[in-house]
Amino acid sequence: MKTFKSIIAILAAAITAVSCASDLEVNENLYHSKEYMFADFGMVKDVMTNAYGYITAGFSAVGGTMTECATDDAVYANTPNTIKGFYDGSWSANNTIDDCWGTLYAAIRSCNYLLENCPEDFEVAKYLEEYVRNMEQLTNYPWEAKALRAYFHFELLKRYNNIVLADHTFTASEVNTLEQTDYASASGWIASELLEASKHLPATYSGTAYSELGRVTRGFALAMRSRVLLYAASPLNNPGSDKDSWVLAAAAAKDMLDVNAADGTYGLVDETFGGESRGVVLAVRQAANNAFERANFPAGFEGGHSGVCPSLNLVEAFDNIDGTPYNAAKDAANLMDPAKRDPRFAKTILYNGAPFKESTLDSYRGGKNGAPLDEASPTSFYLRKFLQEETILSAGNTNSYQHFWPVIRLAEVYLNYAEALFEATGNPAFKGALSGTSFTLSPLEAINRVRAVYGLPGLDAGIGAADFRQRLRNERRVELAFEGHRFWDLRRWKIGPATKDVYGLDIRQEEDCSFTSTRTLVQSRDWNDKMYFYPISEVERHKNRNLEQNPGW
After folding, report:
1. 71, CA 20 to 30 Å: which among 32, 49, 307, 410?
2. 27 vs 15, 31, 111, 169, 170, CA distance in Å?
3. What is the CATH number of domain 1-60+98-181?
4. CA distance 160 to 518
5. What are the start-end ranges of the E strands in 291-400?
6. Do domains 1-60+98-181 and 202-278+410-496 have the same CATH topology?
7. Domain locations in the chain as residue ranges
8. Alpha-carbon distances, residue 97 vs 85, 196, 328, 488, 534 (angstroms)
């Protein structure tokens, strides 16, 4: 298979060079002219590729690190770093973090540019050998652009709450008079756009003459729609606990699962995150590099800077191998025994005694990877997930590997389904009809399908509602760990105050070479409920006086 064509440098440079006002309008000096950019298939493909270039990987989402470092799942080993602004009280409308307002509107504009100008055919090229193949792609482009435009709107919505819907390219006279749309209306529009796109997008590009990877499919549009509606139904955005919103979200997830059951494109698999996978609906493929390993290999391994350090909070979230929740009072001896923990624990976390790079991780105090070593993990844990262990960072002898960031996976859709249907009914075992949709898979069964991939026992059939909600949220936490979800889940669930304290282990080696471990508070972070949404930069509000600031900012 061929890899999807790289973004065209001149277009990427043009996009990043504009201000917010022009992020919503077209400046044809940047694009030469419409006639030039849409003169032949190759140029149209470049425009489409440019839009894809705005989908980003989360390996270095904020300040060169992962958003999990601003949650109770991890801390960042090095100081200073922008990520700490999320919880140290310095975040404000004049000191923004992860401010994507302008960039995401530039992404949306790139989609609108294609949607408004993409030709239906190139008659002059119909005698060329590649004509049929090119027309197959050209037919898909408007629907790909529509799905991407919806995705970029959602990225804005989950950050900024009330946003401007850019369903067309705005003129210079319009751009600074635009008004925001409320969350419910915006999410409804985004969901409808994704549904429409799903009716025209292919199930897969595999087996086609062009067979390119990393492009949006019918499955992507439906899966993303399930995420959009799940967020809309969640406590942050559904303060009245409207059950119909949850039913709509459950039905959206069911739509994707039903379509996938029919065409078999995706599957629940034990992910390795080292290449293409049937479990990944859409991924960002990065060219071979070792930046992630340099940032996150444990201190003490050549070239490593520790970076993302998982918390004890997260480590304790992984079940025991028998499927029961880990209990520190009873199971402390098994904490770092991978044979007695959920298999995802050892796939996600590097712990004291873990095998790594033909060596053993020694993260106890005084060990080769532990304090007081410079940049040693404050929690005693290091990240394993996504690391290409074979990477060599020795001076003069480095190597690199491709990296794949999962934008959305099939496992998430099962978890979306389970959460939405449970919250709609309060019954983990519910099967039946709601609002004209027949649900034949219970929330409990949906979660247990994800757990079965790892050989874990299913949750008990008689589990109560409160326990099920806790286990469901925990399942999402460990299955999707370090994939950029925890930061948003704790917001949409409105559990921010419960995530302020981040713990680690102080591990000491005794004279007999045994170890003692003490639970320690690593960080106690600031939290204010205004942080459920981002502030809109005062710079943007100065450009458009109609933009209303989010509460508290």
Report:
1. 410
2. 10, 7, 14, 10, 11
3. 1.25.40
4. 40
5. 308-310, 349-350, 355-356, 359-360, 382-383
6. yes
7. 1-60+98-181, 62-89+291-399+500-531, 202-278+410-496
8. 7, 33, 36, 15, 8
* Structure-block tokens of residue 487: 């930061």
For residues 460 and 467, what is the distance between their CA atoms, to the nearest angstrom?
Answer: 11
Nearest-10 crossing angle of helices 410-425, 465-479: 160
* Tens of each residue's pLDDT in the chain, 553 residues: 434 333 333 233 333 333 344 566 555 555 567 888 888 888 999 999 999 999 999 999 999 999 999 999 999 998 778 999 999 999 999 999 999 999 999 999 999 999 999 998 877 777 777 888 888 899 999 999 999 999 999 999 999 999 999 999 998 888 888 999 999 999 999 999 999 999 999 999 987 777 777 899 999 999 999 999 999 999 999 999 999 999 999 999 999 999 999 999 999 999 999 888 999 999 999 999 999 999 999 999 999 999 999 999 999 999 999 999 999 999 999 999 999 999 999 999 999 999 999 999 999 999 999 999 999 999 999 999 999 999 999 988 999 999 999 999 999 999 999 999 999 999 999 999 999 999 999 999 999 999 999 999 999 999 999 999 999 999 999 999 999 999 999 999 999 999 999 999 999 999 999 999 999 999 999 999 999 999 999 999 999 999 999 999 9
- Rounded to two decimals, the pTM is 0.93
Residue 501 to residue 389: CA distance in whole angstroms: 31
In the block, tokens 């991924």 appear at 283
Q: Write out the two tokens for 43.
A: 């140029």
Determine the CATH number of domain 202-278+410-496.
1.25.40.900
